[in-house]
Amino acid sequence: MAEAQNPGGEDPQSPASSRMTSFTQVPIEVTVAVGRASPSIQELLGLDVGSILTLDKALDDPVELFIGDRSIGFGLLEVSEESGDPRLSVRLTEIADLGTSAP
To answer: Is the model's pLDDT at 68 over the cut of 60?
Structure first.
């Protein structure tokens, strides 16, 4: 009788598999790019508490998600109240193919 194999080819009980499982539990930081602004130095020096810096995006434009400098997808900003407090959240609308190498 043939033994069933793991699609990845590794024994799920192997040390390598155990290390990979541990590795996937490491938290990473995701950055959300809401928009960009290009003020002059004079405009920047003129900013004070309460000043408004206008970005290049409309309120309902997609935001881009990054891990480091690599784009991992796009989404829309939302307010969620999962923990009882209103929190800014991102609803994913597009996810990059993370299986390919960075350009």
So the answer is: yes
What is the DSSP code (8-state) at residue 83? T
CA distance 29 to 68: 8
Domain boundaries, the chain: 29-95
- With CA atoms as reference, report the closest residue to 103 among 74, 73, 71, 75: 71
The pLDDT tens digits of the residues spanning 47-57 come to 999 999 999 99
Query: Which residues make Cβ contacts (< 8 Å) with residue 77, sequence separation at least 6?
Result: 34, 59, 63, 88, 89, 90
CATH of segment(s) 29-95: 2.30.330.10
Residue with tokens 């784009």: 71
What is the tens place of the pLDDT at every residue in 5-55? 444 555 556 666 677 777 788 899 999 999 999 999 999 999 999 999 999
CA 77, CA 74: separation in Å to the nearest integer?
10
- Which residues, in sequence order, are CB contacts of 21 under 8 Å at separation 6+? none
